[in-house]
Write a structure and sequence with these properties.
It is built from 14 helices and two strands; from the N terminus they run H-H-H-H-H-H-H-E-H-H-H-H-H-H-H-E. Helices cover 80% and strands 1% of the residues. The protein has one domain: MFS general substrate transporter like domains (Growth Hormone, Chain: A, Up-down Bundle), CATH 1.20.1250. The longest helix has 55 residues. The chain starts with a helix and ends with a strand.
Length: 394
């Protein structure tokens, strides 16, 4: 990537990672904090307070993504970040389950994932776009790993209200970066936008939407079980970050050659299929897990495949929907949110009714179905060797 592409990609990855940090940061500590709140003894209300962020996001991904195609990415991202800040401040004002839920709902309404992903596509050439998407996708994994490391220490120092204030401050910094660092993009008025129905039913995009649903449903279901496996293997919960963080970082190193190979040799379909196979292998290793080392091996295999798919899929969505990237990525991110919600609900049900191994069995079945669907994909869109795909103003 040239300096302009790298600067823009890193800035957008930071913004994307910030939103995901707002989602992940509460996971390690909220169920414990909620015990002291009215209604906190009801697991459903606690789960709803955590999950409302994704539920509301799912409602706004498509409208805001489509709006970004029409008026440009920057206004939509600034509006979404302002809602993120407002929601964080609402959650910080009262230590009450209802107000925390309202605040997280407002944070989720600033659903800028589609606009950010489309902005990355606007500001990068096709031959480096998958690498750019890998950096943005990597911010998700890093946010998850970072939340496991810092959540408990921060909570002990500034409590939950203080954590929301910190998120609001980070959101304000992200707004400054958006306004002053990132170039504006203009809607391509000369290109007729595809209708929402046309984008939704485009076969290539439908395959990718099925993929992101399966990817995130199996991820969240898996992480209902993995912490328990680690505890059963003798690793206390407070030490789990010692496994997660190095594995996530190492997975980035291992995935890089595959991304470079796929782009240079134009073998992205092969890399995508191989990544799905890696997820299947990881699910099988989890069923044999009886030690911390076995679980760590499964996690490493899983995260290499997961990070590859987090990079490849949005990049391919932007190539298959050049005239309506925001709309297509809005549908994609909506499907992602539904996958996260479905994986949590179905995974929890299977754990209660059939045990831990049933979660991995479900994941394997879904991944086999995805592999069959993805196998029928044709060649990836030919990239424009000399096109930057960038329209900016300073």
């Amino acid at each position: 990537m040239n300096p302009s592409e790298l600067r823009s990609t890193l800035a957008l990855a930071g913004i994307f990672g910030l939103r995901m940090l707002g989602l992940f940061l509460l996971l390690p500590i909220f169920s414990i904090h909620a015990r002291g709140l009215p209604g906190g003894e009801q697991a459903f209300l606690v789960g709803l307070t955590l999950g409302i962020f994704n539920i509301v996001q799912a409602c706004f991904h498509i409208p805001l993504g489509r709006l970004s195609d029409r008026i440009g990415r920057k206004p939509v991202v600034l509006w979404g970040l302002s809602l993120f800040i407002a929601g964080a401040l609402i959650s910080a004002t009262k230590d009450d389950l209802l107000w925390i839920a309202i605040g997280r709902g407002v944070m989720g309404a600033g659903a800028i994932s589609a606009a950010v992903s489309a902005w990355v596509a606007d500001l990068t050439r096709e031959q480096v776009r998958t690498r750019a998407m890998a950096i943005v996708g990597g911010s998700i994994a890093l946010s998850f790993a970072l939340s496991l490391v810092i959540a408990a220490p921060i909570y002990r120092v500034i409590s939950l209200s203080g954590m929301f204030v910190v998120l609001a401050i980070l959101g304000a910094i992200a707004m400054l970066v958006t306004y002053y660092v990132l170039p504006s993009t203009h809607p391509e008025v000369e290109v007729q936008q595809a209708s929402l129905k046309e984008v939704f039913f485009r076969p290539e995009l439908m395959r990718l939407n099925v993929g992101v649903f399966v990817l995130n449903a199996t991820q969240v279901a898996m992480f209902l079980v993995v912490p328990r496996l680690l505890v059963d293997a003798g690793l206390p919960l407070s030490s789990h970050w010692e496994i997660y963080l190095p594995i996530v970082l190492l997975s980035f190193v291992l995935m890089a050659p595959a991304i470079i190979y796929g782009e240079k040799k134009q073998k992205l379909r092969t890399v995508l299929l191989a990544a799905i196979v890696l997820l299947l292998i990881a699910e099988w290793i989890f069923t044999q897990a009886n030690s911390v080392m076995t679980i760590a091996t499964a996690l490493l295999v899983y995260f290499v495949g997961f990070n590859l798919l987090e990079a490849l899929q949005p990049s391919l969505v932007s190539r298959f929907a050049k005239e309506s990237k925001g709309t297509a990525l809005g549908i994609y991110n909506t499907t992602q949110s539904i996958g996260l919600f479905s994986g949590a609900v179905v995974g929890g049900y299977l754990m209660d009714s059939h045990g831990n191994l049933s979660v991995f069995a479900m994941g394997a079945v879904l991944l086999v179905c995805w592999l069959i669907i993805a196998w029928s994909m044709g060649e990836m869109p030919t990239r424009a060797a000399d096109s930057k795909g960038v329209s900016t103003t300073t």
